[in-house]
Amino acid sequence: MGLARMLAGALRAPLEGLMARWARIRLIEPEPETLSLEPTLPTLYVLPHPALSDTLLLASLTRTHGLPPASGRRTIGAITLPASTALPAPSRRLWRPKRRPAAPFLSLIEQCQRDPGRDVQLVPVSIFWGRAPGKRFGVWQLLAADSWQFTGRLRRLLSVVVNGKNVEVHLGTPLRLSELLDAREAELTNRKVARLLRVHFRRLRTRVLGPDLSHRRILIEGIVASPEVRRVIREVATAEQRSVPRLEGRARRYGREIASNMTYPVLRFMDGLLRRLWNRLYDGVAVHGLERVKAIAGDHTLVYVPCHRSHIDYLLLSYVLYRDGLMPPHIAAGRNLDMPLIGPLLRRGGAFFMRRSFRDNRLYATVFNEYLHRLIARGHPLEYFIEGGRSRSGRMLPARPGMLSMTLRSYLRGARGGGQPLVFVPIYIGYERILESGSYQRELHGGRKRKESPWGLLRVLGRLRQPFGQVTVNIGEPLSLPAFLDAEVPGWRRLDDPRPPWLARAVPRLGEILSRRINAAAALNPVNLVALVLLATPHHAIEASLLKRQLVLLVTLQRRLPGGRHVSLPEGTPDAWLERVLALGMVKRRPHPLGDIIVADGRQAGLLGWYRNNVLHLFALAGLTAFAFRHQACHNLDGLVALLAPGWPILTRELMIDSPASLREDLADMLAALVEAGLLEAEGGRWRRPRESLEAGEQLGMLGGLMQPSLERGYLLLSVLLSEASGHFTADELTARSRELAERLALLSGLDAPEFFDTRLFSGLVESLEAQGWLHAENGRLVFDDRLREAAQRSRALFDPALRHRLQLISRPEAG
Fold it and tell me: In the predicted model, is pLDDT for residue 742 greater than 50?
């Protein structure tokens, strides 16, 4: 034994040197310097399973980063142990039952019991080889990379040789042995320590690799054989006079049409492919807040709910999660993307496909629900877009109930069986320039949506040399579904109804909260900042110097009074921001002897509207406060609250932001911020526009211009509604009439802004008025009382008399 140990020691030094030169660690998490090790205590590193390659790599890592060494042996009191050890692998002999040997901490525990002043810290370490092969990709990389199957010696050697340049190391929180001691029995503490470590390793492996992937065919057969699907097959067979075997075949076809076929090799292939794509398309992908996901990923079922702005969203989030050590989710994609070449690749990357509507197909709906339930029950991360489709206007669209309702029902079904908690992760994805900008503008102007096809992909590939700026991925505040249900439906755990009646109110409420949390994580970037300023000018032209000052104002306001909890701000200076927007071709610079002028032509202004709408909600209160001073030079706080309070809840609903606990307090804070910025003057409990500074007045006017379209849309709808007696309009009639007048007003004003007369915005306004109690329906007709007339009369002071006069003219029947 002594000779063997000496031989092993002699070989270890050159092997460690070889490993240090060969291996390259792609990701270390957390940074070793933040590990919070107690320097006075001996340190032992614990690996999940025995592997010489892992111990050699760990020795190199600790030496490089100045951590307690992981090579050699440690003498702790009267005990000498290897500096790095591993939990023993279970016995696999055929003639014996499978059993797990005892963990190697018993002697240490007994020593700590005898001598309470002696302690040890255990650091769990997980090492993954070849999870992201990067540029070197091929059959060997696929065979050698880590998966849920623990590797043998030969495959581990192959993994080190092939994938040694792409290694991930995850360091766990140190465990103090003294804190885990059980006074009754050392063996009990030994099992407790081993159990804690195994739970940690399993959660981390789940976080990085996701749950073990089942064979797709077996999964589909299990769905068809499930009690719910079998019941629906029998009922449909009776209703349609069809044979059960034939309907079973149909159910299998539905399963194959829906189910993803996620495989680790394709994930690794797509990682390398997407890295090249992002490097070609974008200047970089900035990610904020991912630590909130990593904190819960190991023991929660995650449902990622991003905003949907581009087809790139599907790929971008999966790439970011995989790059940063998290398992990519299974993604709900429209069946329109299941096209030749693209569909099979997306399916193997985790996409499962769904039809736009399956309300009238019970069997398809049941198969889809069962598939979704099995993903959730097994803890697979999911991703879907609660808006349904991509936003053509750039605004956050109202959440659709379909996927949220199915997720909630599936969770209720699993929660009664003790399933793990489910957490929604809101995600904001912000682009400086999107691929689909041209098609969005065409569709907003009435053009038909083009069907997705491989030829469309080829057109995109032809644009890869164009600049597209940077992308920002912001993680919002996660929402625990059990906590949401506890707040909204107390006692939900005691109910046993698979479709409880409270779903009808809980699902829309869930969608509203998630939409607001997505918006609360918005990213300000140079393009949307310039869009906010430039589109608030009458002719989409502004002096470059004034533009930069207004950019500073917007960022300063967000820094002092952020419009969301997890908003991110751009780095750099206003000069750099402007140059970036110019380089992307979003605006033009017109040189002039008295100072350059920044302009946007009609096409550019239309495009900029999309980017402005991404972040318009962040400036709702600032814009509304500034707008109040457009036609009234002076306000006190009481008068301002009375003026703005009736419309504020409707504005927050339209822009999907949280209402403040106290509008009065938030208004006072905003007024103080505007005074500090020099845009208002305070005197004796009143606030007024600056008397001397024309520039400050101009900046205040542009800030108020941010909310002008929303406010004028609401005023126009109220004008139409109040022009007739209560009960005259149905909701559809009011929406249609308001839209027609808005379009006419835009044409007469020379505005090329189809979003101003978007039908969905007017229907949303009607819903908001009903939700706030200003309207209610009787026999399909909208009924209101004098309170609405009085509120509308008070709000008239906000608007330009010329606008009020024009609305009166164009709303007359003879004007048509």
Answer: yes
CA torsion, ordered 390, 395, 396, 398, to nearest 10 deg: -90
Half-sphere exposure of 770 (CA within 13 A, CB side): 15
Are 645 and 778 part of one and the same domain? no
Q: What is the pLDDT of residue 133?
A: 34
Judge if 655 and 581 occupy the same domain: yes
Between CA 671 and CA 681 the distance in angstroms is 9
Full domain range(s) for residue 195: 11-90+100-209
Residue 303 lies in a domain: yes
Spatial separation of the C-alpha atoms in residues 535 and 533, rounded to whole Å: 6
Task: Count structural domains, the chain.
Answer: 4
Average pLDDT, the chain: 84
Instruction: Give yes or no for a contact between 688 and 604, defined as CB atoms under 8 angstroms apart.
Output: no
User: Which helix or strand (DSSP H or E) is residue 766 part of?
Assistant: helix 759-771
As a whole number, mean pLDDT of residues 536-555 equals 94
Residues in CB range of 350: below 8 A, 6 or more apart: 260, 262, 267, 318, 328, 329, 330, 331
Q: Any idea what the CATH number is for the domain that residue 790 is in?
A: 1.10.10.10
Tell me, yes or no, whether 700 and 714 share the same domain. Answer: no
Distance between CA atoms of 56 and 159, rounded to whole angstroms?
A: 14
Domain membership flag for residue 508:
no
Residue 347 sits in the same domain as residue 386: yes
In a domain, 251, yes or no: no
Question: For position 291, what pLDDT does the model report?
Answer: 92
Spatial CB neighbours of 644, under 8 Å, sequence gap ≥ 6: 624, 625, 628, 663, 667
Query: What are 362-417's pLDDT values in tens digits?
Result: 999 999 999 999 999 888 999 999 998 888 888 999 999 999 999 999 998 877 65
Pairing of strands 422-431, 479-480: antiparallel
Q: Are residues 660 and 728 in the same domain?
A: no
CB 381 within 8 A of CB 330: yes
pLDDT band at 513 (very low <50, low <70, confident <90, very high): very high
584 and 645 co-located in one domain: yes
Residues in the chain: 816
Structure tokens at 297: 């990923």
| DSSP-derived secondary structure for 774-789 | S-EEETTEEE--HHHH
What distances in angstroms separate CA 530 from CA 11, 687, 813, one per listed residue? 63, 28, 40
User: C-alpha angle with apex 403: 397 to 407, nearest 5 degrees?
Assistant: 135
Report pLDDT for 693. 79
Read off the amino acid at residue 407.
T
Q: How far is the C-alpha of 470 from the C-alpha of 528, rounded, in Å?
A: 12
686 and 794 assigned to the same domain: no
For the stretch 632-690, pLDDT in tens is: 889 999 999 999 998 899 999 999 999 888 999 999 999 999 999 999 999 888 999 98
Q: Are residues 665 and 741 in the same domain?
A: no
